[in-house]
Amino acid sequence: MLIQEGNFVIDMSTVFEVCGGDKEIVVKMITVFLNTLPGTIEKLEKYNESRDWDNLYKTAHAAKSALSIIRIPPLFDMVLTVEQNARHLKDVAAIPQLITKIISDFKEAARLLKLRFHLD
User: Are 44 and 63 a contacting pair, CB within 8 Å?
Assistant: First the structure.
């Protein structure tokens, strides 16, 4: 199942598969995703600001797990880049822009998920 608006796509096939197609469980997983990822993104910002690359890498790695169930390809790719850059101390100057884009893409994903699944 895809949720799409313009070029923005959320691939829900994995979450439906993991939940055995049970929409009630899917909604619970979406709710957990929407409630936990903002805190994870805040940690990305905090660790980037303090240049704590080890914790930034670990937090990005954890975010990837959530994004592997509810697939938002550009968001997953940006988090992966943050993880790799922080882990290998490569192009860390690009990380703030990536985090800004992660925030805006997550907000769009949250809006679409709430709209599609009638969440408050």
Answer: yes
Phi first, then psi, for residue 98 (nearest 5°) are: -65, -45
| Domain residue limits, the chain | 2-116
SS3 for 7?
Answer: coil
Q: Which two tokens stand for residue 12?
A: 């829900």
Q: What is the Cβ-side half-sphere exposure of residue 49, based on CA atoms within 13 angstroms?
A: 7
Report pLDDT digits (tens) over 87-112: 999 999 999 999 999 999 999 999 99
Residue 67 in tokens:
């994004």
CATH class of 2-116: mainly alpha
Write down how long the chain is. 120
Read off the pLDDT of residues 34-48 as tens digits, 9 standing for 90 and up. Answer: 999 999 999 999 999
**Residue carrying structure tokens 């769009």:** 108
Cα-Cα-Cα-Cα torsion 92, 97, 102, 104, nearest 10 degrees, comes to 170
Q: Kindly report the number of other CB atoms within 10 A of residue 76's CB atom.
A: 18
Residue with tokens 């860390």: 92
Amino acid identity at 35: N
